[in-house]
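Technical note accompanying the year-one report. For the benefit of new consortium partners, we illustrate the data format agreed upon in the data management plan: each record pairs a sequence with a C-alpha cell string. No post-processing was applied to the example shown here.
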Amino acid sequence: MKRLLLLLFAVFAFAVLRAAESKRPNILLIVSDDQGYADAGFQGCKDIPTPHLDELARGGVVFTQGYVSHPFCSPTRAGLMTGRYQHRFGHENNPFYDPADRREGLPVAEKLLPEYLRAAGYVTGWVGKWHLGAAPEFRPERRGFAETFGFIGGGHRFQNWTANPAVEYMVPLERNGVAVAVSGHLTGVLGREAADFVRRHAAAPWFLYLAFNAPHTPHEPTAERLAQFAAIADPKRRAYAAQVSLLDDAIGETLAALRASGQAERTLVFFFSDNGGPIAVNGSLNTPLRDGKGSVYEGGVRVPFVLRWPAALPAGARSAAAVSALDVFATALAAAGAPMPADRVRDSVDLVPFITGAKTGAPHERLFWRAQRGQRAVRDAEGWKLVRQDGRADELYHLSADPGEDMNLAAREPDRVRALAADLAAWERELVPPAFPGATARAAAKAAKKKN
C-alpha cells in the first residue's frame, strides 16, 4: 500500500509539473538590424510587402512608441539582454572585433537573460548576429545559451563569402562554437535554423534569440528578389527593399514552424529593430521621425515594435505607451514564472499587466539615452522630450503633437526644460564610464597613426 501511495504521489506530482510547464510560454525574441521605422506594412510601408510581419502585428500588440535604449547596434543588445541601461556597466560602444581582446565585450559581471531562463528550466538558443564580444568569455555559449548558431561579430556578408576568421564580415558561421559550412542566402539560412529549433523543442518551454543582420549593409539580396522590386527607382532603396523582403520571409518560416508544431498559441513573441534606420546609408525610411541611426532624435531610437502572445494578450491592438527593448527582460521572466533578480538596479518593466489592464498608468515615467558625440535625451510618459547635445542649447519637443521633432519649445517651456534636465543629470550620476573604447575609437586611432 505504501509503495502504491508513493507511486500515485509521483504520478500526481509529474502531472502537476507538466501542467505548470504547459502554462509557461515559449519566448521568441526577433531583432532586425538597421530597419527603418516606416519599413513594414503594419507601419504604413507601401513599397515593401511584409506579409509575415503584418500577420505578427495583427495577432498581437503594436507599440507605436516602442524604443531601444541606444541608437546603434551592440549597446541596444547589451541592454535588452540585461534589463539594464547598458551605460550602468559601461557598454556604450560597439566592441571591436578581436577574439584576443578581453575588454571589448559585454562585461562578464553582468548575468544575461538566457542564464536566468535556463535556470528556470528553459531550453535556450541563439541564432544570428552576436556583437557582444568575440573573446571566449563573451561568447553566447558562455552566456547562458545551450544551443548556438551564427556569427560572433557585428555584421556579415550575405552571399558568396570566403570564410576568414580574421575578417569580421567573413568569419565562419558556427554551430555550438564549431565552424560549419552553409549554403544559400544568409537571411534564409538563419530563418531555417530558427524554424528547426522551434520544431525540435516542441515539448517546450524554450527561449530563442533570433538576431538577424538584415537589412544592415552590405546589400546582397538574391537576384530573383531584387528583380521583384524593379519598380523602385532608387537603386539603394531597391536593394534595401529586397533585403527586408528576404527578412520577412525568414521570419515567416519561423512563425510557420510555430503554427505547424502547435506552439503558436503558447509562444510569446517580441519583434523590433535594434535602432532606427541609417537613412543615408541603406535606403531605409523613418517617416515621420527625425534623423536616424546614431542619433538620439526619434529616428535613431524609436523602432517598429510588436508583442504577441495569443494565450494571454489581445490581437490587433495598438498602444501609444512608451515602452523599451529593456522590457524584454522583465516581461520574459514574469511570463516564465521566474523571479526578477534584485541584486542590482534593473530598468526593465513587465509589459503584460499594462496591456491586459491589470496595471494602469505608464510602464515608464522616464526613458533616457546617451550616445556618442555628446548626445543625451530624456522623455517622460506624457511625451515631453529634452534633447541635449554638446555645444548647443537644450531642445524640447512634445512628441504627442510633434513626433517629427520639428518645433523646439524650449524657450516657451523653461520650467519643463529644467525639470527634465534635472532628471537627466540624476540618471547620469548613476552611470559608469565606458568599459571599452570600441570600434569607432579603434578606427580613429588607426587613422590618426596612419596620417602621422
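Partners are asked to follow this layout when depositing records. The two ends are 88 Å apart (CA to CA).
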